[in-house]
Amino acid sequence: MESGVTIGDRVRIGHHSVILQNTVIGDDVSIGNGSFLGCQPFKNSKVIHQITDQTGLVIGRGSSIGNGTVIYAGSHLGEDVMVGDLASIREQTNIGHSTVVGRNAKVECRTEIGNQCVIQTGAYITADMI
User: Fold this and answer.
1) With bands split at pLDDT 50, 70 and 90, how would you rate the model's confidence at 45?
2) What pLDDT was estimated at residue 129?
3) pLDDT-based confidence at 41, cuts 50/70/90?
């Protein structure tokens, strides 16, 4: 766990999970084994949009993050969100309260997902689809 991480009460963090700087985790959150939270987007000469001043990841109260999940910095997960094992959520994504992101689902950057949505297992979601 890096500096600048804020962790609420009654949070469970699984073995070998990595939580990077400026990540905020609400109360009663469960994080599975081997998850990678708050990572910065990769930058190289082929990136179309340069990411600057990336904010930290925020995970709302009562959420559950599955094993092996990757969630990038700059994203915000509302309260009671469930993210299945091996899912990937890219930067600057907002996920509403009580939403489910299925196992191995991929959510691209700058995507807005509302409250009480269900993203099925293995789905590939691009910006502005939901």
Assistant:
1) low
2) 63
3) confident
Closest among 40, 75, 76, 72 to 61, alpha carbons compared:
76
- Own/partner contacts of 109-113, CB < 8 Å, gap of 24 or more, are 109/41, 109/72
pTM for this entry: 0.90
Give domain 1-41+53-130's CATH number out of 2.40.160.210, 2.160.10.10, 1.10.10.10, 2.40.50.140.
Answer: 2.160.10.10
